[in-house]
Amino acid sequence: MIAGRRKFIQISLATISASLLMGRRSAWGAAQKDLKIDPVSNEHDSTHRLQSAIDSLSRGAVLRVSSGTYKIDASIGLKLKSDMTLALDQEAVLEALPASSSNYAVIKIYNANNVNVLGGFIKGERTLHKGVLGEWGMGVDIRDCSDILIQDVNISECWGDGIYVGSFPKSNSSGCQRIKINRVVCDRNRRQGLSLVACNNVTVSDSTFSNTSGTKPACGIDLEPNGRSVVSNVSIVRCRLTGNAGDGVQFYGRVLASTVESSSMIKNGRFGIRLAGAKNCHVLENDFQDNANYDIYVRRDTKDCNVNKNLIGRHGGSSLEAKSISAKTGIRVFVEKGARNVSVI
Predict the structure, then answer these.
(1) What is the domain extent for residue 11?
(2) How does DSSP classify residue 258?
(3) Cβ contacts of 295 within 8 Å, gap of 6 or more
């Protein structure tokens, strides 16, 4: 009996050792095998090598990309899958090769859940773009997904948007759910820093959206549903919107129950923030300075919104047609006639 028990213990220890050698175990029970990618000298196109590594990841695993520059054919892009993390070294760069396509994405996250993109740089090709048409070249394109985290990523020089969050045109879904964008920099992109087009429960925090220019709307962040889509329950907090040719932040159309709080809108080419058709939204305790038009503009079809405790700085707005407030500097906020139940304090 004792000999049998000793044999059982030996077999159990051998099984445990084998499991540890296979790698840590994921929440789903299968052993995870993280992968690492290093740069290859004189590699003109890294797209297929990185995509092969992504495709081979086990569920819940991490692809670590070492410091270096990786050229990506953006017309193909890197398609991430559910239950994975793409972790870029802080000096790793995914750089789009020059393209003629009007519609591309360096990173595509489509119909996926539980995906993290962490660190590094994503660089578009707007200065080397071969065509003149379109405005949809994205750094990160997220469609019909849930539980996505984009964190500590610097995205610049895209033909379209730094980040796009929405759905496919013929999708029956309500778009994306539970998206977190944290400590991100979107700079010098052509159309938008960030577009929120079809989504619910989105948090954008501690991020910078700057110097967007080239084609309209050219906003730092644009909440603007397409078609019958809705954008709801978005929280923008502690963000900096500066130097954009359009608005710092735009709420346009069916934008519901969303907030901009403790953020700064400085030196944007139009409004610091625009509320146009938004409902039950809030602009709270923000800092506005030197925006080319009104710091805060509320269009007539907006209702049930609070614009409270904001620090209004210098800007070039002209005389008002409707309700306004004045800080000690004499600066005003514009609310069009017809806006209903809009509190400005």
Answers:
(1) 2-344
(2) -
(3) 265, 271, 272, 273, 288, 289, 310, 312, 313, 315, 317, 331, 333
Helix, strand, or coil (residue 293): coil
For the CA atoms of 334, 339, 341, 345, the dihedral, rounded to the nearest 10 degrees, stands at: 0
Assign residue 290 the CATH number of its domain: 2.160.20.10
- pLDDT given at position 14: 40
Spatial neighbors of 96 by CB under 8 A, at least 6 apart, are 71, 72, 73, 74, 104, 106, 123, 124, 125, 137, 158
Beta strand 92-96 with 136-143 is unpaired
Q: What SS3 class is residue 237?
A: strand
The type of residue at 170 is K
Determine which of 54-68, 165-179, 222-236, 242-256 has the lowest per-residue pLDDT on average. 165-179
Q: Which residue has the tokens 């735009």?
A: 250
When computed from its CA atoms, the radius of gyration of the chain, rounded to whole angstroms, is: 23
Q: What is the distance between the alpha carbons of residues 105 and 24, in angstroms, rounded to a whole number? A: 32
- The answer on pLDDT for 56 being more than 60 is yes
**Count of CB atoms situated within 10 Å of the CB of 185:** 17
What span, in angstroms and rounded, lies between the C-alpha atoms of 127 and 157? Answer: 7
d(CA 265, CA 286): 8
Structure pTM? 0.88
CA distance 20 to 18: 5
What does the alpha-carbon distance between residue 336 and residue 325 come to, in Å, rounded to a whole number?
13
How many CA atoms does the CB half-sphere of 307 hold within 13 Å? 29
- Number of structural domains, the chain? 1
Measured between alpha carbons, how far is 344 from 322 in angstroms, rounded to an integer?
12
pLDDT of residue 29: 53
Tokens linked to 289: 């300075």
Q: Which of 173-177, 260-264, 328-332 has the highest mean pLDDT?
A: 260-264
Work out the mean pLDDT of the chain and round it to a whole number.
Answer: 88
Instruction: Please state, in angstroms and rounded to a whole number, the distance separating the CA atoms of residues 73 and 101.
Output: 11
